[in-house]
């Protein structure tokens, strides 16, 4: 198995290479460049041209590409044109925000979805099941920004249960207990929104797996051995029903850094989604390319992780 | 193996989608917000109020009677859908929002008067202009202290020049204006250790020598730098490292009423009062500036989360109109939008605009004028902008009272006139399809480049296209749709043959001089119109002769008239900027001539008042 893993990792290299070429060319295809946005009646076109020249943007694309890849291989992602900081610092800062948000969201997501899915599967066709299915369809159908705005207005501005904006209270002293608490407090509302929007998949998979499993031989065997129904559900069926969810776990883990532009914008929570969009709008090439490469790498890693996890939880599957 | 291919494909597909989606969304909340001026002196500006009738739309100041509380924190919302960049240095910042934040901790040396001109009154430094010898003397007040208690010295005034002129400096401010300082180019080239034109006279006086002075000097132009930088804090930091340094990002010391206390990158800034502020200790304890998304700003203001909002989009006015807990202040913005006609090309080799009326589709002045008369800008201003915009009659916003020519008619909506002009000029419908052909009887299709913006932008542009169709002109969109900001300027600047006319906008900055936008050598002269007459006016406005204010004003008026006659650029709209202010705020003003004194702001309640 480890040989296979190694092989998959090696295969990633050409994949990432192709991706780097594509993203670089696509980025350059975008009209304008990081300096286009700087024009005002008072800026000097000659100075902008000089900055362009100095940034190497006037070189042929393959030279720029070679330079970029050269730096990339050495771990240098470049400097953001907009933030004037090393790209890794910016991604570190926003990525950490996103990571905490996603982590809490995923935990909440499973906390909400697994019990609901199990209940719906166990009591399928009951009123409870129908209510859960209805809920899951609504949460699936509702646009992200509608739910986010609704929650913000309801729990934030009307009931004042949660802070409405940002990732932390600016007055809290970094490192203090208040600061950590403030960070968590600011996370809750966006995380709940995020979690609710994502529950459908898990609920539906779990529900249908459980319904299927109910009529399977091993369940009947367990019942005939006299094991109480409750235990059959919690021990036998539950474990097997989690398989399809485990299949996505790799992507879930690497997807933690993805971020969500809607949630981040509405809750004023600066994370990766927003960073990606604003970088594209301001043609911040170094950030755009770094992020796409990062996401590309994470996707490949996610698929690998998922396969490994599957082979661990399901002995029938063996990677060869 | 197969699976891997799929995942890569899927990824690329997602990427393409993301890129495509993004380019469509650009500038969501900024309708035709082309260009912010370099806000070199946003907060300290004290420009003058004009007496145009429309000014009465809003109050300019809140006074709120009532007992002020002791101290308190002013909560300021900065309406923005993305994080701020957080470069808190006047020499280095690029994003205008950073300047807005820094306004609370200004390092400005000069105040300006109602005409946006530097005045000694209330300024840290005095400015003496020796026009004959092209010299300027800057003398700083004694006893002014930085927020950390260190005294302000003349080194602090010199330092910004050494930063901007430095070979390692990567900002936009090392420009042709800055090179007007004698010795700046040598210093930038590395052949001199310092800028020879900067001469320290004594501990409080600096003499600066320029190649050539113009009236722009009084607006902080010509290379004069109007801010101080804390030499004791940053002089030893290499210029290349400055932009990432904590002294810029985290704890810059300031001369203003407030000083930085905490910064949450991209989100919020907490200021506390600067006890060393030279005008007196601020009455507030502090200020919090927070980025607030445009989607929730109106509700946030209504529920009393914030005392002030800046960068509040005027199109949201109806959402807050009925709130009783806020007053809305407003003032005309230093801005105009325009319709430009391509009548030439930029010769990149020689760096000059070449006008070619004969060879341009839009070469006929009658056609251009008719297109102006055909536009129902009045209705658009009223319906889509709730009267917060108005038809512009000139390329100088009325705020610049002494330069603005109120007597100009402009192109007031008059379709009948448009039609008669077109008939007269020979643009008639020959083949009977309801659309006019050009004087040679050829089909006439005019390509309009327009920027994408918020939801109403599409409707507005369609309405304009219909206006033109009503007088028989076939105007279609370049690329078939609205164009994203970056692409728009890319195409317009490159004289894309697919563009005959275009709709853009300029923020004028505090010096509305047309040089840079209408001169013969200006790349940003997008219509590519230049002539001896225009060039003489553009040059004249910034010539030594223009130190005679009256003469300069005449040149300005002649410039406006000239452009109106040739109609290569037709002004479209002026607009208001509005500032919602909570009713607990006392002594706040957006009046250009009597700006807020930050240390005088008071609050009359512990928390912002909720609706």
Summarize the structure.
The complex is a heterodimer of chains A (320) and B (611). Chain A has helices at 2-29, 45-54, 61-73, 87-122, 127-141, 144-158, 177-214, 217-224, 229-241, 243-254, 261-266, 272-281, 285-313. Chain A is mostly helical and 320 residues long.
Can you give a write-up of this model?
The complex is a heterodimer of chains A (320) and B (611). Chain A is an all-alpha fold and 320 residues long. Chain A folds into two domains: 2-61, no CATH class; 95-313, MetI-like fold (Orthogonal Bundle). Chain A contains 13 helices and no strands. In chain A, helix 4 crosses helix 7. Chain A is globular. With 611 residues, chain B is an alpha+beta fold. Chain B has a domain at 25-32 and 333-576: Roll (Dipeptide-binding Protein, domain 3). In chain B, 25% of the residues lie in helices and 20% in strands. Chain B is built from 16 helices and 24 strands. In chain B, strands 13, 14, 17, 18, 19, 20 and 21 form a seven-stranded mixed beta sheet that branches. Chain B has a five-stranded mixed beta sheet with strand order 9-10-11-2-12, with no helix packed on it. In chain B, strands 5-6-8-7 form a four-stranded antiparallel beta sheet, covered by helices on one side. The longest helix of chain B is centred in the first third of the chain and has 24 residues, at 2-25. Chain B is globular, with a radius of gyration of 26 Å. Chain B starts with a helix and ends in an 8-residue tail after the last strand. The model of chain B is unreliable at 1-55 (pLDDT under 50).
């Amino acid at each position: 198995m480890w040989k296979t893993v190694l092989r998959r990792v090696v295969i990633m290299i050409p994949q990432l290479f192709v991706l780097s070429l594509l993203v670089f060319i696509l980025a350059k295809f975008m009209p304008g460049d990081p300096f286009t946005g700087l024009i005002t009646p008072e800026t000097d076109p000659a100075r902008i041209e000089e900055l362009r020249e100095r940034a190497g943007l006037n070189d042929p694309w393959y030279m720029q590409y070679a330079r970029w890849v050269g730096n990339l291989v050495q771990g240098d992602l470049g400097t953001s044109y907009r933030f004037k900081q090393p790209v890794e610092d910016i991604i570190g800062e926003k990525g950490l925000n996103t990571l905490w948000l996603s982590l809490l969201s995923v935990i909440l997501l499973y906390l909400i979805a697994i019990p609901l899915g199990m209940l719906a599967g166990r009591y399928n066709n009951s009123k409870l099941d129908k209510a859960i299915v209805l809920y899951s369809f609504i949460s699936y159908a509702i646009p992200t920004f509608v739910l986010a705005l609704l929650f913000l207005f309801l729990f934030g501005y009307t009931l004042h249960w949660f802070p409405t904006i940002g990732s932390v209270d600016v007055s809290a002293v970094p490192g203090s207990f208040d600061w950590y608490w403030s960070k968590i407090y600011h996370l809750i509302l966006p995380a709940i929104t995020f979690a609710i929007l994502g529950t459908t998949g898990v609920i539906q998979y779990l529900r249908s797996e459980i319904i299927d499993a109910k009529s399977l031989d091993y369940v009947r065997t367990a019942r005939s051995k006299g094991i109480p129904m409750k235990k059959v559900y919690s021990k036998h069926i539950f474990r097997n029903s989690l398989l399809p969810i485990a299949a996505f776990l790799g992507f879930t883990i690497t997807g933690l850094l993805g971020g969500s532009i809607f949630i981040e914008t509405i809750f004023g929570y600066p994370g990766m989604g927003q960073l990606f969009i604003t970088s594209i709008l301001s043609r911040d090439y170094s950030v755009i390319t770094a992020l796409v490469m990062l996401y590309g790498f994470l996707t490949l890693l996610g698929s690998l992780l998922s396969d490994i996890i599957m082979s661990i939880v399901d002995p029938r599957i063996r990677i060869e | 193996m197969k699976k891997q291919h799929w995942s890569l494909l899927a990824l690329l597909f997602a990427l393409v989608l993301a890129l495509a989606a993004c380019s469509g969304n650009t500038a969501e909340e900024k309708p035709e917000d082309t260009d912010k001026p370099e806000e070199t002196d946003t907060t300290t500006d004290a420009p003058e109020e004009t007496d145009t009738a429309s000014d009465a739309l809003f109050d300019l100041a809140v006074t709120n009677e009532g007992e002020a509380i002791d101290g308190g924190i002013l909560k300021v919302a900065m309406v923005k859908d993305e994080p701020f960049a957080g470069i808190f240095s006047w020499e280095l910042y690029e994003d205008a929002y950073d300047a807005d934040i820094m306004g609370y901790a200004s390092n400005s040396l000069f105040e300006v008067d109602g005409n946006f001109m530097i005045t000694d009154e209330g300024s840290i430094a005095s400015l003496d202009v020796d026009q004959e010898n092209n010299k300027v003397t800057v003398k700083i007040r004694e006893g002014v202290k930085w927020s950390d208690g260190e005294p302000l010295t003349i080194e602090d005034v010199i330092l910004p020049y050494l930063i901007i002129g430095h070979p390692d400096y990567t900002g936009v401010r090392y420009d042709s204006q800055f090179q007007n300082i004698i010795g700046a180019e040598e210093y930038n080239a590395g052949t001199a250790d310092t800028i020879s034109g900067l001469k320290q006279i004594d501990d409080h006086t600096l003499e600066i020598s320029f190649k050539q002075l113009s009236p722009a000097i009084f607006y902080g132009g010509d290379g004069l730098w109007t801010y101080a930088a804390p030499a004791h804090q940053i002089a030893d930091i290499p210029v290349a490292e400055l932009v990432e340094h904590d002294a810029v990002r985290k704890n810059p010391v300031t001369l203003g009423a407030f000083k930085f206390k905490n910064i949450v990158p991209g989100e919020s800034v907490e200021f506390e009062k600067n006890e060393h502020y030279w005008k007196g200790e601020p009455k507030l304890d502090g200020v919090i500036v927070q980025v607030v998304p445009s989607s929730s700003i109106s509700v946030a203001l209504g529920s009393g989360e914030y005392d002030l909002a800046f960068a509040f989009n005027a199109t949201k006015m109806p959402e807050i109109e009925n709130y009783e807990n806020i007053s809305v202040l407003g003032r005309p913005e230093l801005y105009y939008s325009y319709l430009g006609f391509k009548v030439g090309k930029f010769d990149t080799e020689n760096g000059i605009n070449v006008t070619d009326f004969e060879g341009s589709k839009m070469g006929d002045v009658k056609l251009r004028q008719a297109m102006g008369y055909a536009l129902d800008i009045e209705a658009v201003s009223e319906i889509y902008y709730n009267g917060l915009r108005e038809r512009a009659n000139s390329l100088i916003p009325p705020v610049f009272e002494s330069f603005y020519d109120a007597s100009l008619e402009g192109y007031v909506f008059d379709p009948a006139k448009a039609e008669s002009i077109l008939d007269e000029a020979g643009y008639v419908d020959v083949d009977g399809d309801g659309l006019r052909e050009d004087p040679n009887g050829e089909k006439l299709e005019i390509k309009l480049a327009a920027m994408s913006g918020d939801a109403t932008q599409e409707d507005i542009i369609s309405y304009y296209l219909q206006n033109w169709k009503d007088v028989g002109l076939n105007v279609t969109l370049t690329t078939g749709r609205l164009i994203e900001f970056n692409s728009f300027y890319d195409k317009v600047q490159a004289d894309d043959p697919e563009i005959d006319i275009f709709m853009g906008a300029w923020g004028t900055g505090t010096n509305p001089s047309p040089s840079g936008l209408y001169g013969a050598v200006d790349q940003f002269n997008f219509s590519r119109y230049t002539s001896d007459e225009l060039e003489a006016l553009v040059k004249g406005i910034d010539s030594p002769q223009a130190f005679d204010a009256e003469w300069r004003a005449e040149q300005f008026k002649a410039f406006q008239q000239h452009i109106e006659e040739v109609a290569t650029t037709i002004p479209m709209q002026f607009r208001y900027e509005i500032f919602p202010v909570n009713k607990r705020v006392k002594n706040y003003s957006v009046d250009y001539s009597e700006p807020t004194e930050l240390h005088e702001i008071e609050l009359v309640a512990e928390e912002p008042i909720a609706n």
